[in-house]
Structure formats: C-alpha cells, structure tokens
C-alpha cells in the first residue's frame, strides 16, 4: 500500500492554518457585528427612496459611533439631524470664505448671500427639530426637515437661475439627502 503523506495535526503548517482560519473568522464576525444593526434599517428606509440609497444611509449613519449600537428609528433620526447640523455648519463656513473671495462681483454675491441666509435658516430649524423628536412630535420634526431639504435645493437653484456654476453642489446634495434620510427614519419612529 502506498503511504500518503498527510500532515499531522501537530505539524506547524496545520497549526498555522488553524490560527489563520480563527483570525479570519473573528475578523468577519467583528465586521458583521458592526454593520448588522444599520443594514436592515437602511434597507427599510433607503431601499424604496428616490432621494438617497442604502449605501448613503449606511455611510452617513455609520460615520457616527452611536449608530453602531442597536438604536431605534427615533434615535437614528436624531443622529441624522446632527449630521445635517455638522454639514450645514461647515457649508456656512465655506460660504463665508467664498463671499470673501467673491467680494465685488455682484451676481456671485447675490447667490452666495441667499445661500448664507438659507443655511442659517437650516441651522435655526434643527434644535427645535431634535426637541420635537425627543417629545414624540415626529410629524412636526419631519415638517422642519422638509423645509431644510427645500432650503438646500433653493440654494442650488440660486446659481442655476443666475446661470452660474454652483460651488456648493456637493454640500447642497448632502444637506438635502441627510434631511430626507432623517424624514424617512421618522416615518418608522415610535
Ligand atoms: C456631510 O455629510 C456627508 C454625508 O454623510 C459626509 O460624507 C460629510 O463628511 C459631511 N461633512 C461634514 C463637514 O460633516
């Protein structure tokens, strides 16, 4: 009979192989644990949305550590509101910078000044929005968030109506989608 050379269980190669399998299994499990609570939520709110996709929902909410714990829809909508606030704050700062550069060119100033007002309007809405969510007044919060989404679109429209290239397309898109994400989460909040 031919002797088959099978590595014995104690051979360094087999030990190495088992260690490798274990590391990769642990790694996969850790990743699954981290992603799992958000995936069903994002599939629910983003799967049928025309405003944002599952990927946007996952990366937006996933950027906040709070979202990795098993949060409910209401808590997640507050996180989305916070993301709108962070975005709108940085957009406001960008607009201030652009206004300094554009000083003198009247058309640019007009669009940017409108956007500045629109974004400070968005920031004014958000604290009341969070308070409404905490108080269970989800419809009222959703209404404010719809206003925030419209304001972001209006900013983009300013440039379009002046036939200018918008320097804020990315920012307006984020603010719009984040506000719509918060609205979508609120539909499932209880
Ligand atoms: C704005 O939101 C987008 C989408 O969540 C994110 O990628 C970006 O980092 C945010 N920007 C700021 C300044 O918060």
UniProtKB/TrEMBL annotation:
GO molecular function: enzyme inhibitor activity
Alphabetical list of Pfam families matching this protein: PMEI (PF04043)
Annotated Gene Ontology cellular component terms: extracellular region
Keywords: Disulfide bond, Signal
Signal peptide region: 1-32
Domain annotation Pectinesterase inhibitor: ranges: 30-185
Family matches, as NCBIfam families: PME_inhib
Protein family (similarity comment): Belongs to the PMEI family.
Descriptive protein name: Pectinesterase inhibitor domain-containing protein
């Amino acid at each position: 009979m031919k002797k088959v050379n099978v590595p014995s269980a104690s051979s360094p190669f087999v030990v190495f192989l088992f260690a490798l399998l274990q590391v990769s299994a642990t790694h996969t499990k850790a990743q699954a644990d981290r992603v799992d609570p958000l995936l069903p939520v994002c599939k629910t709110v983003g799967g049928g949305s025309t405003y944002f996709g599952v990927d946007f929902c996952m990366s937006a909410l996933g950027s906040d550590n709070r979202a990795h714990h098993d949060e409910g829809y209401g808590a997640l909508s507050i996180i989305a509101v916070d993301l709108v606030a962070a975005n709108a704050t940085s957009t406001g700062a960008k607009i201030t910078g652009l206004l300094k550069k554009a000083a003198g060119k009247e058309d640019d100033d007009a669009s940017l000044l409108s956007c500045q007002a629109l974004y400070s309007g968005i920031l004014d809405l958000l604290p009341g929005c969070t308070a409404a969510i905490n108080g269970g007044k989800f419809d009222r919060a959703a209404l404010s968030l719809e206003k925030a989404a419209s304001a972001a679109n209006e900013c983009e429209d300013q440039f379009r109506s002046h036939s200018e290239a918008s320097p804020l397309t990315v920012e307006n898109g984020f603010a719009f989608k984040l506000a719509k994400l918060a609205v979508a989460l609120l539909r499932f909040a209880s």
